[in-house]
Amino acid sequence: MNIGKERVGFRVVALGVVPEVSAMPEVESTITDGAAHLYWDSVVGRIYQMQYSNSLEDPVWVNIGSGIHGSGGREFMVIPVDTEAERNRFYQVVDFD
What we know:
This protein is mainly beta. The protein has a single domain, classed as Immunoglobulin-like (Sandwich), CATH 2.60.40. The protein contains 1 helix and 7 strands. It has one helix at residues 84-87; strands spanning 2-6, 28-32, 35-41, 47-53, 62-69, 74-80, 90-95. The strands form 2 sheets. It has a 4-stranded antiparallel β-sheet with strand order 1-2-3-6, with no helix packed on it. Strands 5-4-7 form a 3-stranded antiparallel β-sheet, with no helix packed on it. It starts with a strand and ends with a strand.
């Protein structure tokens, strides 16, 4: 079922020292066939980590998969959202580097 393209208000944070030229990416998403498709523009040499939390009040964020090396192009991750808990999670991309 295609619900359509929507912008999701992800809160993006940085870990460590991030040079000014390496702005955090704006994440876009689509929901299709029980999966969230998340996209962002990357910078060559940066490492990005997708994370989720079940509550914005919980300071713990859980890594999803391993870091994605920026290619200088559009990066993406597909995350299954089959259960009610998965559909209600909060996601963020963290610039590791």
